[in-house]
Design a protein that fits this description.
It is globular and about 70 Å long. The longest helix has 18 residues. Helix 4 crosses helix 5. By secondary structure, the chain is of the alpha/beta class. The strands form 2 sheets. It has an 8-stranded mixed beta sheet, with helices on both faces. Helices cover 32% and strands 21% of the residues.
């Protein structure tokens, strides 16, 4: 199946701030590598979930795929065209086809505008409909995301978090978007509202044949919605595969620790699994070898000394772990020291 979006060895690096720079540069650090050599492709109509702890590079990856973060190295291609080579007109067309759903549903909306005004603004800027058809289209968008017409003249402060997130989704769909990056879209919502928003995403994906990159720390949400799962750690993908396989048979020790942290009905306090030990290392000054080895209960000597392992193809997915590496070539992204 032809991919709608392709990422090839993407690197996103932030320069060091003054003051920190000289001390860290003496230790060999060049900058903060938020995304380090990530490659992936997403077929049209698929939902890909990206999971991992805070600071692993999930959001930066999603923003770079939309051109909202500049790539330091590598390329992002949409419908077989590299984003970095698009003309102004082609970039505008891309913006219509690819949109983002933000984590903070209230903060993502203009507090001075009503729902009707926000949706109308998108329609006019992108010339989606004629003025005579604008009102009908606004009502159509509201109905599509489950917003009643009596909410159209309200401003964000008069809406609940779930209603604001529905407005954000309607605004993204107003351009006829085919690809959505949803960055933790349910994390700021109550549990009952989370379920409603997830059901909305699932329905819209099926009805509109949407392609999704769904970023979340909630593994249950990812399992419910996504076809494929990518597990990120310190800017790299350490495991990928079909959602059911990754959840049923995780290969990487980090993935296993994440999956073990999912609570199950009927568990007592003593039954709850232990969380991943320690804190994630600094992306500015990561440990030698595999960056997960200081927290890994299966680490051995090669994990401490050998370069970060290249992804190995397994029967149903890939894993980047020395436990599966008979040879240890250097990855094409910038090697962790």
């Amino acid at each position: 199946m032809k991919p709608l979006l392709e990422v090839d060895h993407l690197v996103v690096e932030y320069p060091l701030q003054r003051g920190m720079a000289s001390w860290l540069q003496r230790k060999g650090a060049r900058g903060l590598l938020a995304v380090n050599g990530v490659s992936l492709s997403i077929p049209k109509g698929h939902a890909v979930g990206v999971v991992g702890e805070s600071g692993c590079g999930k959001s930066t990856l999603g923003r770079a795929m939309l051109g909202l973060e500049k790539a330091s190295e590598g390329t992002v291609g949409f419908d077989a065209k590299a984003l970095g080579r698009l003309s102004a007109g082609e970039l505008t067309a891309f913006r219509r086809r690819a949109q983002m759903i933000f984590q903070d549903p209230v903060g993502a909306l203009n507090p001075r505008l009503s729902v009707r005004q926000m949706l109308s603004e998108v329609i006019r800027v992108h010339r989606i409909r004629e003025r005579a058809d604008e009102e009908h289209y606004v009502k159509e968008l509201a109905a599509k995301v489950g917003l009643s017409e009596d909410l159209l003249d309200r401003k964000p402060r008069s809406l609940s978090g779930g209603q604001c997130q529905r407005v954000g989704i309607a605004r993204a769909l107003a351009t006829g978007a085919e690809f959505l990056v949803a960055d933790e879209p349910t994390s700021a919502l109550d549990v009952s509202v989370q379920a409603q928003i997830m059901n909305l995403f699932k329905r819209l994906k099926e009805e509109l044949d949407l392609t999704l990159l769904f970023i979340s720390h909630d593994l249950g949400v990812v399992r419910y919605l996504c076809d494929t799962v990518l597990v990120m750690y310190l800017g790299r993908i350490v495991e990928r595969g079909p959602a059911e396989r990754v959840f049923a048979d995780p290969k990487h020790p980090y993935t296993r620790a994440l999956m073990a942290s999912i609570p199950h009905v009927g568990e007592t306090t003593s039954d709850l699994p232990k969380p991943v030990k320690g804190e994630p290392p600094s992306p500015i000054n990561p440990p030698t070898g595999c960056p997960f080895h200081p927290r890994c209960d299966r680490a051995f000597e090669d994990c401490k000394r050998a370069p970060f392992p290249e992804e190995r193809v397994l029967e149903n997915g890939t894993v980047a772990c020395h436990l599966y590496s008979s040879q240890r070539p250097r990855p094409k992204g910038r090697g962790l020291r």
